[in-house]
């Protein structure tokens, strides 16, 4: 149900396998629509920030004090160099990164300056896919936690199986639906879903009902992030729902990734699930007060300071 974290004697606290991105963030005075009045608008501010599901989660882990390692594919263009440099500057080990002579994944993110909500437009070259033979089995077995996304599902499923055979728990960022999604869910220890995924997998629109439906095929902790509604988890038959914390959101980009990184940190401290989720909610809330994905990750002190006075959304 809630396995004990492996020994701290392992060389890495968390090994992340998945995607990186360079994000071109544009803050706008209103949410883009097709109406004539909003067909043109002036950008409030803009900047470039590194991101990607696993990269942002690892940046969070490193910022919170964990020994983090990244395994994935990056390109050779300036965007790729920027994201590798950003991860290295944060102390993330890149010794098993694969580099291919293509452009790195990138995204254009349009952010409503009033609500912090965003639209993400992205592109990724097919040659950035991580192949199963490029996985580092020894590094996977020597991490205390392996974290995977669902961008390269075959590699993620294989990595999860290698990890679990070595007694390493696996967390996930499951954000899309296809014919192998349930195979990935079954392969990981702690399936962690984006809000839209459990209803799509089960046909049950209520988050709690959807998690209970997924319980029939997975006996571990099931967790779903719910945006402004916080996060929900099913531990055995016990349902935990913790509301989000009230903040003046600037940009919600990467908040779910920060939640996952903070969840991994708290799990490795041996905290109970409710405390783990509360801390992860706090870290995600802090990230929403800043622009960007990796640029928004909080330190442990920042998350703890926020948590000391934070109020849930009413």
Brief rundown of the structure:
The chain has 10 helices and 14 strands. With 314 residues, the chain is an alpha/beta fold.
Strand order of the largest sheet: 4-1-9-10
Overall average residue pLDDT = 94
CATH architecture: 3-Layer(aba) Sandwich
* Count of the separate structural domains: 1
Secondary structure: number of strands: 14
Q: What is the CATH first-level class name?
A: Alpha Beta
Query: How far from one another are the termini?
Result: 31 Å
CATH superfamily: Ribokinase
Main beta sheet strand tally, sense and closure = 4 strands, parallel
| Uncertain spans | none
* C-alpha Rg (nearest Å): 18 Å
Note the run of SSEs as H and E: EEEHEEHEEEHEHEHEHHEEEHHH
Can you walk through the features of this model?
With 314 residues, the protein is α/β, with parallel strands linked by helices. It has a single domain, classed as 3-Layer(aba) Sandwich (UDP-N-acetylmuramoyl-L-alanine:D-glutamate ligase), CATH 3.40.1190.20. 32% of the residues lie in helices and 22% in strands. It contains 10 helices and 14 strands. The chain has helices at residues 53-63, 78-89, 137-141, 153-165, 181-187, 197-202, 207-214, 255-268, 273-288, 300-309; strands at 12-17, 21-28, 45-51, 68-71, 73-74, 98-99, 106-112, 118-123, 143-149, 170-173, 192-193, 222-225, 231-235, 238-242. The strands form 4 sheets. A 4-stranded parallel β-sheet has the order 4-1-9-10, with helices on both faces. It has a 4-stranded mixed β-sheet with strand order 3-2-7-8. α1 (53-63) crosses α8 and α4 (153-165) runs parallel beside α5. The protein starts with 11 loop residues before the first strand and ends in a 5-residue tail after the last helix. The mean pLDDT is 94.
């Amino acid at each position: 149900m809630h396995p004990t974290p492996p020994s701290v004697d392992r060389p890495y606290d968390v090994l992340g396998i998945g995607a990186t991105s360079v994000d071109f963030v544009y803050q706008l005075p209103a949410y883009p629509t097709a109406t004539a009045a909003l067909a043109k608008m002036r950008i409030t501010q803009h900047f470039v920030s590194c991101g990607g599901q696993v990269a942002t989660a690892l940046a969070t882990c490193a910022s919170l004090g964990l020994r983090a390692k990244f395994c994935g594919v990056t390109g050779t263009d300036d965007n790729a160099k920027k994201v590798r440099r950003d991860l290295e500057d944060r102390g993330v080990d890149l010794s098993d990164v694969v580099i291919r002579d293509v452009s790195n994944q990138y995204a254009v993110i349009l952010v409503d300056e009033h609500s912090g909500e965003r639209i993400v437009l992205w592109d990724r070259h097919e040659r950035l896919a991580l192949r199963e033979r490029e996985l580092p089995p020894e590094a996977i077995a020597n991490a205390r936690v392996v974290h995977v996304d669902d961008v390269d599902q075959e590699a993620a499923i294989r990595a999860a199986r290698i990890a679990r055979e070595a007694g390493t728990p696996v967390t996930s960022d499951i954000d899309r639906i296809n014919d192998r999604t349930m195979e990935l869910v079954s392969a990981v220890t702690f399936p962690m879903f984006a809000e839209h995924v459990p209803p799509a997998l089960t046909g049950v629109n209520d988050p709690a009902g959807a998690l209970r439906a997924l319980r029939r095929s997975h006996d571990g902790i099931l967790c779903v992030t719910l945006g402004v509604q916080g996060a929900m988890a099913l531990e055995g038959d016990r349902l935990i729902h913790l509301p989000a914390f009230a903040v003046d959101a600037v940009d919600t980009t990467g908040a779910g990734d920060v939640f996952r990184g903070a969840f991994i940190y708290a799990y490795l401290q041996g905290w109970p699930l409710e405390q783990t989720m509360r801390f992860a909610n706090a870290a995600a809330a802090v990230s929403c007060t800043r622009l960007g994905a990796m640029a928004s990750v909080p330190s442990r002190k920042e998350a703890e300071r926020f948590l000391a006075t934070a109020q849930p959304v009413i």
